[in-house]
């Protein structure tokens, strides 16, 4: 029997375009190359599972197109809609969806009903061996297997379909951390072997960043942004994307325009959160002015949000010489989480602003609540986003 890696004609991309208002709003596109893993992230109700259902053929969009490996699975304009059984999709669910009265081998064999019984059993054993289950475990019913072992059965069942597309719907959320690490390694191994698109739905941002080649950020049925985890984290399209991908250091500001004598640079005034009257605050406070990249798209006076990644914030050693632009701060919260600490700082120059740092090593040892410190920003890593009104 051939396996997916023996079938180069299946090593082709997924293309999805959808636009609908009912039964729920959905709008956006998705591309996933062969051997690539794309993660759909966003809050509950964002539309992630609905996109998965459209890909699997479990839901027909009002207007949309799905192409996998050059084969059109759905094209509402041409009246094409292949049913699930014709799509060769491997589905792995959060809660395994195993038949409780069947053994692990019997569950995998359900995907092979087109084969004679003896060949079904042979192929079921092959895929269960492939995901690391012993001969004894293969004969057990789901109740006799751990959560991680049950999920391996579900993965083997999906692989037995020789899928052209793998869909993973919160596949690790019901598994404890130790088993989850093993499943991550299994998925990494499978990605090297399979030349098919893989789409993952997850609420775990760390999981998405660790596993995915690209993120698709969704909210209220819309695809807001897609790109590599690093590109989205460094340059979110707007404040909502920044919130959804867990960027802690997001601040308010006012764009002042090009920096005099500095090509490609602009001036940003850092404002306190919830600032209603920037002019009044400027009179009362010496608010920081930051010289940052200017893409030439913002008019002077534009209200903005801006972010800086943790790589762009340096906590200065007590003996370090201060430079213009360094900021005095005080530790207002220190949460020690094993080998790392999550530190929250208040900034003397920006009333109400809070900055969050994740620290490890010796630098975090003496950082107790109330400690006075200094921080330095790498202004080249500041990303500015206009505040849209109306």
Gross morphology is globular
Structural class: alpha+beta
Overall pLDDT: 88
Low-confidence stretches: 1-11
CATH architectural arrangement of the largest domain: 3-Layer(aba) Sandwich
Q: Summarize the amount of helix as a percent range.
A: 10-25%
Distinct helical segment count = 10
Strand content is: 25-35%
CATH class of the largest domain: Alpha Beta
Q: What is the total number of structural domains?
A: 2
CATH superfamily membership of the largest domain: P-loop containing nucleotide triphosphate hydrolases
Separation, N- and C-terminal Cα atoms = 60 Å
* CATH-derived topology of the largest domain: Rossmann fold
- In total, the number of strands is 21
Gyration radius over CA: 26 Å
Biggest sheet details: 6 strands, mixed
| Strand order across the largest sheet | 7-8-9-3-10-11
What does this structure look like?
There is one protein chain. With 390 residues, the protein is of the alpha+beta class. The chain folds into 2 domains: 4-88 and 162-244, P-loop containing nucleotide triphosphate hydrolases (Rossmann fold), CATH 3.40.50; 250-386, Beta Barrel (OB fold (Dihydrolipoamide Acetyltransferase, E2P)). The chain is 23% helix and 32% strand. The strands form 4 sheets. The protein has a 6-stranded mixed β-sheet with strand order 7-8-9-3-10-11, with helices on both faces. Strand 5 and strand 6 form a beta hairpin. Helix 3 crosses helix 5 and helix 5 (147-160) runs parallel beside helix 6 (177-193). The longest helix has 17 residues, at 177-193. The chain is globular, with a radius of gyration of 26 Å. The model is unreliable at 1-11 (pLDDT under 50).
């Amino acid at each position: 029997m051939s396996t997916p890696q023996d079938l180069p004609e299946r090593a082709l991309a997924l293309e999805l375009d959808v636009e609908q208002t009912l039964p729920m709003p959905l709008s956006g596109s998705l591309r996933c190359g062969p051997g690539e893993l794309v993660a759909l992230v966003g809050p509950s109700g964002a539309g992630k599972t609905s996109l998965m259902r459209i890909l699997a053929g479990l839901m027909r969009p009002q207007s949309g197109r799905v192409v996998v490996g050059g084969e059109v699975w759905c094209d509402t304009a041409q009246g094409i809609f292949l049913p699930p059984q014709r799509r060769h999709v491997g589905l792995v669910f959060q809660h395994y969806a195993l038949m409780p009265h069947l053994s692990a081998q019997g569950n995998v064999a359900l995907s092979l009903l087109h084969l004679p019984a003896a060949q079904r059993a042979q192929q079921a054993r092959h895929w269960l061996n492939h995901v690391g289950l012993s001969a004894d475990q293969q004969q057990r019913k789901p109740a006799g297997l751990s959560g991680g072992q049950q999920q391996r059965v579900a993965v083997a069942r999906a692989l037995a379909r020789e899928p052209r597309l793998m869909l993973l719907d919160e596949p690790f959320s019901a598994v404890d951390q130790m088993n989850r690490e093993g499943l991550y390694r299994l998925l990494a191994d499978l990605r090297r072997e399979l030349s098919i698109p893989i789409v993952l739905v997850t609420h775990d941002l760390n999981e998405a960043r660790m596993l995915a080649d690209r993120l698709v950020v969704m909210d209220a049925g819309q695809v807001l942004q897609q790109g590599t985890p690093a590109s989205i984290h460094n340059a979110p399209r707007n404040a909502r994307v920044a919130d959804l991908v867990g960027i802690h250091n997001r601040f308010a500001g006012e764009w002042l325009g090009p920096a005099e004598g500095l090509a490609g640079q602009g001036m940003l005034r850092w404002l306190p959160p919830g600032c209603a009257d920037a002019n009044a605050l400027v009179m009362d406070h010496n608010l920081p002015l930051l010289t940052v990249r200017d893409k030439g798209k913002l008019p002077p006076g534009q209200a903005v949000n801006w972010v800086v990644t943790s790589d762009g914030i340096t906590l200065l050693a007590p003996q370090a010489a201060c430079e213009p632009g360094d900021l005095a701060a005080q530790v207002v919260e220190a949460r020690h989480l094993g080998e790392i600490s999550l530190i929250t700082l208040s900034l003397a120059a920006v009333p109400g602003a809070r900055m969050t740092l994740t620290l490890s090593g010796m630098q975090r040892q003496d950082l107790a609540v109330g400690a006075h410190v200094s921080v330095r920003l790498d202004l080249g890593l500041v990303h500015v986003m206009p505040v849209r009104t109306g």
